[in-house]
Amino acid sequence: MIPAAFDYVRAGSAEEAISLVGQHGEDAKFLAGGHSLLPLMKLRLAQPSVLIDIGRVSDLSYIRDAGDHVAIGALTRHMDVENSDLLKQHVPLLAHATSHVGDPQVRHRGTIGGSIAHADPASDLPATTLALGATYVAQGPNGTREIAAGDFYQGFLTSSLAPDELLTEIRVPKMNGAGWNFQKFNRRAMDWAIVGVAAWRNNGDSGVALVNMASTPVLATSVSSALASGASIAEAAEQAAADADPQADLNASVEYRVHLAKVLTRRALEAASS
Amino acid sequence: MTVTQEPTRVIGQRLLRREDPALLTGEAKFTNDLPVTGALHLAVLRSPYAHARITSVDVSGALAVPGVRAAYSGADLSDQWGGPMPCAWPVTDDMKNPAHYPLATSKACYAGDGVACVLADSAIAARDALEAITVQYEPLEPVLDLEDALSDRVVIHDDLGTNTSYTWNLLVEDHDGAVDEAFAAAAHTVSERYIQQRLIPMAMEPRAVLAMPQPFGGDMTLYSTTQIPHILKVMVALTLGIPEHQMRVIAPSVGGGFGSKLNVYAEELLCVALARKHGVPVRWNEDRSENAMATIHGRGQVQRIELAADADGKLTAIRVRLIGDMGAYLQLVTPGIPLLGAFLYAGVYDLPKAYDFSCTSVFTTMTPTDAYRGAGRPEATFAIERAMDSLAAKIGVDPLELRRRNFIAVEKYPYEAYSGLVYDSGNHDGAATKAAEMLGYDELRARQGTQNANGSNKRLGIGVTSYFEMCGLAPSRVLASLNYSAGGWEAATVRVLPTSKVQVVTGSAPHGQGHETAWSMIVADKMGISPDDVDVLHSDTAIAPLGLDTYGSRSLPVGGVAIAMACDKVIDKAKQIAAHQLEASADDLEYAGGEFSVRGSPDKTMPLAAIAFEAFTAHNLPDGLEPNLEAQVTYDPPNFSWPFGTHMCAVEVDTETGQVDVLKYVAVDDCGVQVNPLIVDGQVHGGVVQGIGQALFEEAVYDTDGNLKTSTLAEYLVPAASDVPPIATGHTVTPSPTNQLGVKGIGEAGTIGAASTIINAVVDALSGLGVHDVPMPASPHNVWTAINAARANASGNNTIANNNNIGGSQ
Questions:
Q1: pLDDT band per the 50, 70, 90 thresholds, residue B602
Q2: B781: distance to nearest CA of chain A, Å?
Q3: What is d(CA B637, CA B670) in angstroms, rounded to the nearest whole number?
């Protein structure tokens, strides 16, 4: 429960953070809210040689109306996302899903960018933003680039961010009145989901993404295709695990996870359609 | 002129706990908070193997780490121990007890067994240095299944030649063969098998130790987060060959124990031995994962219970066969835990002399087990209360009705049970009736009929448990009959200071119970003074030299009663002084409201304050009376204390996901007279949550190699506030006839009642689907699996249905 020795530097801006990571190389890690990285370090599952603290880069904490989407600064705390009137109006699924992250202490410290950059398939926000078709903005030494959520998640705790890139913004399309639902199935309120489902539906369109059903968050395209081709919700939900590759752990076998994904997808779509 | 008014009783008031301001503001000092300059920090290297021969240990790498002062293998320290670590409960004369030393030398017997240690200037340096120690292991097969352990396929302790530690029997028959005859003649029988999964106590404060050699002369002070400073003092003295009068043990604020700090641990002995060896303070504290694997576990039993009943469902005989999981070694009271339950497998029921109990306990390559809240009694209560539901289902009567047919009737109290134990008091129907009213039992049964009949995916279930706690450990002679190595008395001193403030010294060592508040209330009530004028001293063997500490819900019915008795002795002495001063006969004096008065002469009075000062100056005391006003009592209780009650709950089970939602939980507990009902409610709340933890959330899971997979609070699911239902507490009050306060224990009642209440409700919800049992924890996955097995069974697929061992094996 004591991390290995590491050095600590604080960045005052995104540019400085990127410059610092350039100096310190691949063993450096950005520290935002610390609620994913520090537990791994305490268990010595992560042993970065340098932590670059970006927690005080205050100009990366914002929620702005950007026309067809809402732009969220990467260092925006979960509590601010959860309580944002702008998001509640235009992207209510994200505000709601964020209210299920961890517990109030975690939501006061943890950040949306930290959660997404950590790329944990068991976290709520990677799958939720994936369902919503979000775009992430990364800043590196040579400027910024946009990454579609669908291209971002490469493997377990692995994203397409380069080591010297910093996630700076999350752009989430407005939902335009779509029905939505978030199902988080767990044993204790504070835990990661055993299986989670983020879903929205608007006329013929839909988006369904699964939490903790593979080494990355999973976009359940088979479900959306089935719905688009006229399948009932129950029929479409049977496709929930078609794009998934779940693992067994202490809480669930593979078979049980697949079953849960189907049940929860059906429930989410029923709620989103009512 | 004066209006006689009954003084307000202090006992029975819901006073806020005086302990809480310091605890809640972080001002309370725990062992790890004690500032000591020059202390060396101990870190222990633990075996990564569940079972392995240690072929070599090389600590030289650790010595090269900056800040490291010393590093030792187990063999290096073998000259430090006067004997192996103590087991105080050799339950049978031929019990097998492997020699267990603070560091293993030839073999590691569980993942977490200490094999080497480091002393360094900082805790971080000590931990980092562990990685530089090289240990060569020859891995052996782990032994993780109790029935496999019993087979001796792999023997863990070579010198014992077997994994079986002991077999202990309790056969009570009014004539030979009575049990067999009862089963042969029974109209109904059930035979059930239950698994009491291993639990990790997870006290909020992990263990911490600080050993401080005193200047010159060899005295040693040991600070430890322990429930048992007095027992620890004796055991450390014996194990390390330190004269007992040179050992002092202090338990500072202790952040919970639940039995896990009722022990003598390797690290306590290591800190003292190394402090003695190096002549400097040595301290150690464990991290959470270390706590999960190196502090004792609880439960761990395979239970077989068989009930025989007549046509009306009246019990005629009970047969119990246990296998107890001792873990790798016997800790302080490990072997006795199943025995504490041995007398409770008939629960609160009127059983003839036809009882056959046998427990065989085995070693496994897992963390040693020992006392965990309830210690044997939750297991026993679970078995009889689950089996009663099975019997009710078999006969086709309501589970509450079956219990009522079997309750020991209130007019039979005091009741001599089949075992010879005398239950002091009870009103089981009263508690059950109150619980049923609070739950709305009849309405819920009606709603259940409708809801479950319509094929809903949310099935309603109702659970009932009626229990006895059997606590207040214990009459010393009874403990002797169980081969326990100590008595069950408790000591108290009550001392009135010159300014009439009162000091209470108690041998019962609190770790969250609220002794300071409760003891001050007892003294205030007895002596007619304010609780604010009473100070309670405890948990330091130099201040409170006599005591047997805190466990088994004993503090109030033993320690608290001792204080009341000491108050009586103080008042008796004060009366002699008052009689002398008032020139009256002691027989004519009355004591009330903190004042003596002469019967018939209401103007002749003398307050306690004046008497205290007279006792102090000793200027004018009766001839032959010693100065000062204090009394000491050592109280050996004549009987256990027998709290009882009924718990009920309603659950809804989502049959698609297996999720259990506890809608309502009702606990009606009868602990006799309540000194402070606020503290009683707190004990019930905490106990019930721990019982719900066992029923729905918690399990120590090992992988097939014997590694603990649940070693953090992310995997070991202790329920949080948001995960437990509202708990409605109710009480009936049946005073204990065996002590002057009429009090009983309450610390373990919630845990004893809760697990079977929840599981009975879950099974009740699913019985219409053919589910007969659900393993603990009734996690969504386990419940879903049980539903699937029942459905497969209904469609004729017996191979799945018969696989009832689905807990924790994913």
A1: confident
A2: 6
A3: 19
| CA distance linking residue A222 with residue A210, whole number of Å | 12
**Does B67 contact A at CB distance below 8 Å?**
no
Q: What is the dihedral of CA B428, B320, B313, B666, to 10 degrees?
A: 40
- Going by the DSSP 8-state scheme, the letter that residue B557 receives in this structure is I
Per-residue pLDDT at B802 exceeds 50:
no
> Which tokens sit at B251?
């338990």
Ranges assigned E (strand) in B75-187 = 107-108, 114-120, 134-139, 164-173
H and E: helices and strands count for chain B: 21, 28
**CA–CA separation, B344 vs B342, rounded Å?**
6
Distance CA A246, CA A248 (A): 7
Question: Which phi and psi (to 5°) does residue B384 adopt?
Answer: -70, -35
pLDDT band for position A274 (50/70/90)? confident
Taking CA atoms, A28 is separated from A21, A74, A119, in Å, by 6, 19, 17
pTM for the predicted model, two decimal places: 0.96
The residue whose two tokens read 């939902």 is A175
Is B617 at the interface with chain A, CB within 8 A?
A: no
* Residue B694 in tokens: 């066992």
Question: Whole-angstrom Cα distance, residue A228 to residue A204?
Answer: 6
Mean pLDDT of all residues in chain B?
A: 95
User: Bridge partners of B641?
Assistant: B471
Q: Give B801's pLDDT tier (boundaries 50, 70, 90).
A: very low
Q: What is the pLDDT of residue B517?
A: 98
Q: What is the DSSP string of B719-777?
A: --GGGS--EEEEE-----TTSTT-B---TTHHHHHHHHHHHHHHHHHHGGGT----PSS
What's the pLDDT at B796?
Answer: 73
Q: How confident is the model at residue B804 (pLDDT cuts 50, 70, 90)?
A: very low
Q: What are phi and psi of B456, to 5 degrees?
A: -60, 145
Q: What is the share, in percent, of chain B residues with pLDDT greater than 70?
A: 97
Say whether B657 and A1 touch across the interface (CB within 8 A). no
**pLDDT confidence bin for B799, thresholds 50/70/90:** very low
> Looking at residue B794, what is its pLDDT?
86
Residues 6+ apart with CB under 8 A from A87: A63, A70, A72, A81, A94, A95, A172
Q: Do B810 and A263 touch (CB under 8 A)?
A: no
Whether residue B139 contacts residue B49, with contact meaning beta carbons closer than 8 Å, is answered with: yes
Mean pLDDT across chain A, nearest whole number? Answer: 96
pLDDT at B455: 86
Edge-to-edge strands of the sheet including A7-10? A7-10, A50-53, A28-31
CA pair distance B306, B194, nearest whole angstrom = 11
Amino acid making up residue B403:
R
The whole-number pLDDT of residue A26 equals 85
CB nearest B289 (choices: A1, A260, A264): A1
Residues of chain A with Cβ-Cβ distance to B657 below 8 Å are: 185, 260, 263-264
What is the Cα–Cα distance from B421 to B642, expressed in whole angstroms? 11
Q: What are B444-461's pLDDT values in tens digits?
A: 999 999 999 988 999 999
pLDDT digits over B20-46, tens only?
999 999 999 999 999 999 999 999 999
- In chain B, what residues touch A252 (CB-CB under 8 Å)? 781, 810
**Between B563 and B2, where is the model more confident?**
B563
H helical segments located in B396-503? 399-406, 428-439, 441-453, 476-481
Quick one: tokens of B591?
């004591």
Instruction: Please calculate the CA angle B199-B714-A101 and round it to the nearest 5 degrees.
Output: 140
Which residue matches tokens 């900082």?
B122
DSSP one-letter code for B75: G
